[in-house]
Amino acid sequence: MRGTVVISGASTGIGRATALHLRGLGFGVLAGVRREGDAPDGTTPVLLDVTDAASIDALAARVGGGPLAASSTTRGSPSAARSSTSPWTSGAASSRSTSSGTSR
């Protein structure tokens, strides 16, 4: 395995395609979904709502100190402050994609 990535919005669209692509490249994928059955095959479902602090905290606790190879938010709009202070993003490559496909 090349590392672990977290992909939110992994049940459909860009998030699902990203999760499947990274899985195919040999990454372990934590697929952020609202229902476990919605995670793409071969990924690990994690219940995640990026607009809910408790949901984000539960994911951070699950990941622990990492390391994460990357994280990608393809749904919702988490606050920049919340994303930058998460303990499990420290030292990891992190990107946030908007629905238009741009990255910051």
Q: Can you walk me through this structure?
A:
With 104 residues, this protein is α/β, with parallel strands linked by helices. The termini are far apart. The protein is globular, with a radius of gyration of 12 Å. It has helices spanning 13-24, 53-63, 80-85, and strands spanning 4-7, 28-33, 44-47, 70-73, 93-96. It has one domain (4-96): NAD(P)-binding Rossmann-like Domain (Rossmann fold), CATH 3.40.50. Mean pLDDT is 76; it is low at 78-104.
Helix % is 25-40%
Estimate nothing, just give the exact number of structural domains.
1
Class computed from helices, strands and strand pairing: alpha/beta
- Under the CATH scheme, which architecture would be assigned? 3-Layer(aba) Sandwich
For the residues shown, what is the average pLDDT? 76
- Major sheet: arrangement of strands: 3-2-1-4-5
Number of continuous helical runs: 3
The largest sheet is: 5 strands, parallel
Number of strands: 5
What is the CATH fold-level name?
Rossmann fold
Instruction: Provide the CATH superfamily.
Output: NAD(P)-binding Rossmann-like Domain
Please name the defining characteristics of this protein.
single chain; alpha/beta; Rossmann fold; globular; disordered C terminus
In short:
By secondary structure, the protein is α/β, with parallel strands linked by helices. 28% of the residues lie in helices and 21% in strands. It has helices at residues 13-24, 53-63, 80-85, and strands at 4-7, 28-33, 44-47, 70-73, 93-96.
Please specify the SSE layout and strand pairing.
Elements: E1 4-7, H1 13-24, E2 28-33, E3 44-47, H2 53-63, E4 70-73, H3 80-85, E5 93-96
